[in-house]
Amino acid sequence: MTDIIETLGDSTFKQLKAMILDGRLKAGARLSEKKFADSLGVSRTPVREAIAQLVSEGLAVRSAGGTPVVNSISLNDIMEILHVRSLLECEAARKAALSAQPKDELLSLKSIISGFLTGPRPSAEDHTAIDMQLHSAIARLANSKLLTELIDGLKIKTRMYDQGSLPDRMIPGCHEHIALIDAILDQDPDSAASLMKAHLANARFSIISHIYHPF
After folding, report:
1. Which ranges carry the HTH gntR-type domain (predicted)?
2. Does an H or E element contain 61, and which?
3. CATH dotted code for 75-212
């Protein structure tokens, strides 16, 4: 029975997390155990576990009255997140370039990203998934579990903020990712760190530009 509840809890968490990240659950939305138990066809127990996990990952917070709601990410938050990401991910890129681990995943991702540029335009969801996978792969190559966990958590919060709303970043972002992958494959730590820093600075600039010039 415990295994079933844990499995349902994991599944429920993934479903609620996806709803938050793709914008179906907006910032401030109440996370009602009964509502989601009914809509997802599960008992309240896995919903309660899923909500607790969302809170622990920063995707949800508890209001003053104790009601869990979807967390909101402000412009100041995202600027700070991108600053911290730059510090962490530049170091991760540098270490990844020096790593002796196999880099087959990077080669595979480079092929997919190149296909985004030469083939049909990918959906925002597909592009975001590859973006998440690449940054996570680079962090893992740095061979630090803590660094990987921190980067993955901050990347999710970045996604909570933009939710694929920056289509102008798709093509330049792909070129930046390919250059970054090449630097890591060439075992050039200085270039890898510099390219990661520029990539995140460009993302920061794009977010600010989108806020003040949304159309």
Report:
1. 6-73
2. strand 60-62
3. 1.20.120.530
3-class secondary structure, 69: strand
Residue in the structure block whose two tokens are 């920056």: 166
Q: Where in the chain is the domain with CATH 1.20.120.530?
A: 75-212
pLDDT of residue 215: 46
CA 81 vs. chain centroid, Å, equals 12
Residue extent(s) of CATH 1.10.10.10 domains in the chain: 2-70
* pLDDT score at 3: 46
Q: Judging by beta carbons within 10 Å of its beta carbon (0-12, 13-18, 19+), is residue 139 exposed, middle or buried?
A: buried
pLDDT digits (tens, 9 = 90+) for 111-158: 999 999 999 989 888 888 999 999 999 999 999 999 999 999 998 888
Residues in the chain: 215
What are the residues facing 30 on neighbouring strands? Answer: 69
Phi, psi of 61 (to 5 degrees): -135, 165
- Could you give the dihedral angle defined by the CA atoms of residues 81, 139, 20 and 3, in that order, rounded to the nearest 10 degrees? -140
CATH class as words, domain 2-70: mainly alpha
Q: Where does the pLDDT of residue 70 fall: very low under 50, low under 70, confident under 90, or very high at 90 and above?
A: very high
Q: What are phi and psi of 30, to 5 degrees?
A: -75, 140
Give CA separation, 192 vs 97, 113, 174, 185, 188, in Å: 7, 17, 15, 9, 6
